Amino acid sequence: MKLATLLLAHLSVVSAATLSRVRNFGNNPGNNQMWIYVPDQLAPNPAVIVALHGCLGSARGYYGQVTDLPPASDTHGFIIIYPGSVDDFNCWDVASEASLTHNGGSDSLSIVNMVSYAIRHYNADPDKVFATGSSSGAMMTQILAAAYPDVFSAISAYSGLPYGCLRGSPGSSPFSADPACASGEVVRSKEEWAAEVRRAWPGYNGSYPAVQVWHGMADGVVDVQNYEEVVKQWTGVFGIGLTAENQDVPVEGYTQSVFGDEGELEGYLAEGVGHVVPTQVEATLRWFGLI
Prior knowledge:
- By secondary structure, the chain is of the alpha/beta class.
- Helices cover 31% and strands 19% of the residues.
- It has a single domain, classed as Rossmann fold, CATH 3.40.50.1820.
- It catalyses: Deacetylation of xylans and xylo-oligosaccharides.
């Protein structure tokens, strides 16, 4: 009898939530898929996290890859949107003027419209919208931060490129893009990178999302020089400098660099880690202010 009671108690707390597809979320200029994870117990006015897969990946694949994220959603009651790209080897469009520009179209606007859907249908908090992603997904987080600073409060990018690095490239995948960016050959000043961000929304004078960036020092796909360029870009935007450096944070072999004194930017370099840096869900959720 006791065993049966314990089994029933266990089953009562197992989440019934699952990944499901939303086919009609609104205007979809990027022809992207929308998948969503809604926990059984939503927080009042829940936060929304957009989780972006890399090239050759998929929304469902990223759901299975970042295994700590759905359980955290169950615990804390936030919604996770998993967009899916189906073009250019399933890479995100991080090269076209449409995607790089506020309300310009392509993938970035489709993702923003997914967020709008979640806010409408689940009474989500528009001031608690975040984005994280790996590789091509990390590159898209940079676009969302630059082109839609009115939508996103913070981003966490794993092994990506600076916003605008691939502007004008014939494609965004390793097979179609200008290779100079991924090879670390595009080196600019912080002022030049900051000016690039401002091209995303000319005339915008509001605040930008907080930026967290991760990169492996042994990355052979997206050269680690891109970490330095991302840091230059956002320190230029925020007008800040390095304030602290901490070894073995959040795990051994990682170096945390803190920029500014108001939580604008932090970076992590992972010694001996290649492409891509494994997602550190707890550190990212703390950055988002969700735990």
